[in-house]
Amino acid sequence: MRKIECDVAVIGAGPAGLAAAARARERGAGRVLLMDRDRELGGILNQCIHNGFGLQLLSREMSGPEYAEYFINEAKKADVETMLNTMVLSIGADRRIHAINQYEGLMEIQPKAIVLAMGARERNRGGVVIPGARPAGVFTAGAAQRYINMEGYMPGRRVVVLGSGDIGLIMARRMTWEGAKVEAVLEILPFPSGLTRNIVQCLEDQGIPLYLGHTVIKIHGNERVEGVTVAKVGSDFRPIAGTEWDIQCDTLLLSVGLIPENELTLDAGGQLDPVTNGPVVDDEMCTSIPGVFACGNVVHIHDLVDNVTREAWAAGEGAARFVAGQQPSGHVIPTAAGEGIRYVVPQKVHAENLATRDVRLSMRVKAPAEWVRVEAVLGGEVVFSKAERVVRPAEMVSLTIPKGRVAPELIERVVSAVDGGADDDAAKLVVRIAKRESSSEGGIRA
Amino acid sequence: MSTETRELTCIVCPVGCRLRAVLEDGQVVSVEGNTCKRGAQYALDELCAPKRTVTTTVRVVGGFLPLVPVRTAAPVPKERIAEVLEAARQVCLEAPVESGQIVIADVAGTGVDLIASRSMPVAASGQH
Amino acid sequence: MTAYEHNADVVVIGAGVVGNAIARELARYDVSVVLLEREADVAWGTTKANTALVHAGYDAEPGTNKARFNVTGNAMYPRICAELGVQFQNTGSLVVATSPDQVDHLRELLERGRANGVPGLEIIGRERIVELEPNISPEAIAALWAPTAGITGPWELAIAYAENAVENGVKLMLSSPVTAIDVEGGRAVRVHTPGASIAARFVVNAAGLFADEVARMVGQTDFEIVPRKGEYYLLDKRAGHLARRPLFPVPTAHSKGIVVTPTVDGNLLVGPNSYIVDSKADLDTTGCGLDEVLAGAGRLVPGIPVRDNITNFAGLRATASPGNDFVIGPAPGVPNFINAAGIQSPGLTAAPAIALEIVRLLGEAGLALAPKADFNPIRPRPARFAEMTDDERAEAAACDPRWGHIVCRCESVTEGEIVEALHRSVPCTTVDGVKFRTRAGSGRCQGGFCGPRVVAIISRELGIPADEVTKKGGASRILVGPSKQGNWQCEYGECGECSGPGASGARGRGEEAGAHA
After folding, report:
1. Burial class of residue C32, CB neighbours in 10 A (0-12, 13-18, 19+)
2. Eight-class DSSP state of A204
3. Which helix (H) or strand (E) holds C233?
4. Which ranges of C372-500 does DSSP label H, i.e. alpha helix?
């Protein structure tokens, strides 16, 4: 069996893995090995041929493959070594990796640090329990996207999309542009899951009806899909009797959410956050296993790739610091989702970093809200806040606490509360949503 | 004089204001519902000359994949999208293709080029 | 078109687990056997959608066929599965009582089981139950412990039986529904399918749900097959630990009740409910049925994690009416037409024993049973990457690079396994066929990632255009055609080899594009 040693092994060469690998090299890591099970670098971006990538980070509007290519080139410039068609089978003690591919066979890789960047998988029919027959023609939106954009085949001609996530909306337009008829998009929630821009350009432009508060209650057809029965749902998300009707179609696309792919994380003994379904991480993106970092959709589901890249830079830098023995020592302060917040990543921050670095917090809100303030509350004191005109569950909110913003005495007080075993807000960094009155303020209040 | 009211959703920022615009003889005379100036401009553009970036694929021979993704280098008039898509359907490239390479200059007479939005290397023989 | 003409000593109708077991048992002897199946693959009827249990045999009334063949079939499992390379785990099972009157019922089951000859039965108290099953309901007060029960892979067994039968000379004809049987002078003499007509000395009816229709072709009308549906949840391996063995509630008149059980592959299987449906094609799951299943399961193991659901499915039990028992034996007045019909639960357990009985009955009816000297009872278990040690994996990948290429990541299935499955003695031509043989697409992503890869491999290996590859035969095409005259790139093959029929060039679209490198 071939044995390989390296400083950092990055698992998954999508946007997260690419940026983490390049950043680890740039921050001084020696040999960085980037592995992916697919036959080329770039991950799912390669099938996302629509535009809208890179606006925030690169101030350019790119397609998914263009965004991928930009970071593939960055990784190449940084002398990242890549290994394609390679499946990581397990992560054992001491971060020892077993991987396999058709060229080298089974390999044992011993890195000093690991970055997990396996991304996510799509929730499928079983995950949402759609009754009915089990014919061909039920696809996750991403699988259909791959067939159409990369493999050159049409998965169907008459389509119903369940779920108004961005991939589903993008695919509704894509299939229309390839000559299919998209009969309807159904969303069980009372509000769309995807970006407004996609509702407008992918549905309204194409004249595709969006039914909010509706779902598919039955799939028809024993061999190929012949139609679906749809119904309105009540506030308990159960179908309301008497509201059902049938739509004829040969294809049902599912865009009903993504699930972080953490089988390897669990295998390695990493702790998961039950809300994000991703590993618990600190502000350097280190998981509960020392030297094992994580970034991107494996940690929590992102809506913008630009934020994945930012998070990956933190993970790459963290891994390089770990290899160099520079990781912060000592105290960590747990973060917590307060009023109006569903989750916050990272789940803990190093007290030392809070004093010496910018600390970026990413979160999702529970429900849409307007005229709010996103507040970071350390030990009961608001240490930083940001006004937002509107926040929505579909769009990740971030808050960066600037370096030097938090008084050292406060950090010390919270650290002692943590040390003393306190589990209340006195020992936490809480993020919460507060209503604000006026519409005059905007931007970041220092 | 014909007056008509049109409703649309602003996509300039995540707020997604519902805009109501009044048109007289096809000209926008007022916009309501916007909460910033950019919203009014969006309504003007969207109602007078809506434009979209078109992203699709074209065939490629001898490439790593059978298709290469393409996009218009700039937004094109919305009513020309179908022609752009049809023009893309008629093209077949030969690998290799470079990202940014012009696939169709002045596609469908829009004055905008259709460009490749990724590189497509030649398919390797044997192991990829 | 002239129908294909064939002669056989025995025509077996139906390639489910029962028909395949019979065919394989017949293959021991110097007789020619044709095995007919209406579907595009074996095991696609009741065999592929049941609870995958090897029952101990305490349920059926003493003296019934069910009781007899259950107990004898159960005893045959360890050896049959060892010979055929099929998973069988002798886990034992528990029937769990949650009230004093249910405990009385356990005693009845115990007595019935003893009368049926089931070894080792005993009633155990809560303490032992909790020891055996830490996640059992707090309501559980006593249970019937049946140490001979177990779990198996139903389609694995049926495929293995069919492969071993074919390797020993049985002729299998798929996609061959029986349309008519000629009867002359009180004997079934010829079996017709849309593409063939087979002259037969004996006919065995193992047609599952359709056994009544086949029996009517020889004039037998004394039983009817009533389809009784059962719906299931199949949960992620993460939930597999919630039950260590099949857990039954106390049974009702019609059903053994909603079971919570691990599968041999490590998933958790929950179901089935039980109700009669009108159509033998009705395999729909229903919202209220699935709710019923979940509620039932929750009474045995509280807090079944629905979020770990992988898929739902429904199966149809072939219930014989009247009588409810297995219909084993010749049709009245047609002594060479032998039924193995009405095989509902515990049919999977009983199948090996039913096969022996059918062969005995054929002998009685005049079939000469001279043992075949070269019969090979062994069908080795196909290698599975997921089951290999590291050393075996290293060696497999070193010998054949395709064993180093993982296609289905959820279940760690390699290209090597898929290619192997496509070229075994029983033809496999569909995505579901690959799934049943290799588990590619059976995992938590349900083929989301590997689906396109599996389609490409089937296309390449069998020379079928990618957009004609089906999920399960017939009209179940996965893809409906090319997008903008695109072609399917053969992504794995060495160049030159894939300009065969699998490459799109053969279909005349994008001629030059057919050559991929």
Report:
1. middle
2. I
3. strand C224-235
4. 390-399, 415-421, 431-438, 451-462
pLDDT string in tens for chain C (517-residue length): 456 778 999 999 999 999 999 999 999 999 999 999 999 999 999 999 999 999 999 999 999 999 999 999 999 999 999 999 999 999 999 999 999 999 999 999 999 999 999 999 999 999 999 999 999 999 999 999 999 999 999 999 999 999 999 999 999 999 999 999 999 999 999 999 999 999 999 999 999 999 999 999 999 999 999 999 999 999 999 999 999 999 999 987 667 799 999 999 999 999 999 999 999 999 999 999 999 999 999 999 999 999 999 999 999 999 999 989 999 999 999 999 999 999 999 999 999 999 999 999 999 999 999 999 999 999 999 999 999 999 999 999 999 999 999 999 999 999 999 999 999 999 999 999 999 999 999 998 898 889 999 999 999 999 999 999 999 999 999 999 998 753 333 343 333 333 333 333 333 333 333 333 2
Specify if B74 maps to a domain. yes
Query: Cβ contacts (< 8 Å) between A37 and chain C: which residues?
Result: 406, 409
Closest Cα of chain A to C53: distance in Å?
Answer: 23
Q: Quick count: other Cβ atoms within 10 Å of Cβ C313?
A: 18
Question: DSSP letters of A153-176?
Answer: EES-SEEEEE--SHHHHHHHHHHH
**Secondary structure (DSSP) of A256-279:** --EEE--HHHHHTT--B-TTTSSB
List, in order of start, the domains of chain C with CATH numbers. Answer: 1-87+149-223+322-381 (3.50.50.60), 387-514 (no CATH)
Most B CBs within 10 A among A37, A46, A49, hence the mutation to make, goes to: A49
Instruction: Work out how many domains chain B is built from and give that number.
Output: 2
Residue A224, Cβ neighbours under 10 Å: how many?
20
A178: nearest Cα among A204, A207, A147: A147
Q: Cα separation of A399 and A381, whole Å?
A: 16
Task: State the CB neighbour count (10 A cutoff) for residue C185.
Answer: 5
Q: Is the pTM of this model over 0.90?
A: yes
Can you tell me the distance from the alpha carbon of A152 to that of B119, in angstroms, rounded to the nearest whole number?
Answer: 17
Whether A15 has its CB under 8 Å from any CB of chain C: the answer is no
Count of B–C CB contacts within 8 Å?
45
Angle at which helix C17-26 crosses helix C347-364, to 10 degrees, equals 40
Chain B interface includes A68 (CB < 8 A): yes
Inter-chain CB proximity C486 and B57 less than 8 Å: yes
Take residue A390 and report the two structure tokens written for it. Answer: 């509107």
- What residues contact residue C384 under an 8 Å CB cut-off, 6+ apart? C413, C417, C438, C439
CATH annotation of A124-256? 3.50.50.60
Q: Do A147 and C406 touch (CB under 8 A)?
A: no
| C-beta atoms of C483 and A85 within 8 A | no
Q: Which CATH number does the domain A1-121+258-327 belong to among 3.10.450.50, 3.40.50.720, 3.50.50.60, 1.10.10.60? A: 3.50.50.60
Q: Which residue has the tokens 């990618």?
A: C466
CATH 3.50.50.60 in chain A, residue ranges: 1-121+258-327, 124-256
With CA atoms as reference, report the closest residue to C297 among C242, C345, C338. Answer: C242
**Whole-angstrom distance, CA of residue C88 vs CA of residue C80:** 10
Q: Which domain holds residue B34?
A: 3-48
Q: What would the DSSP string read from start to end of A319-388? A: HHHHHTT-PPPS-EEEEEE-TTEEEEESSEEEHHHHHHS-EEEEEEESS-EEEEEEEEEETTEEEEEEEE
Mutation test of the interface with chain B: which of C459, C485, C516, choosing the one with the most B Cβ atoms within 10 A?
C516
Cα–Cα distance list, C1 to C5, C173, C179, C194 (Å):
12, 18, 16, 10
Residues of A in contact with C406 (CB under 8 A): 37, 87, 100
Six-digit token pair at C418? 């898929």
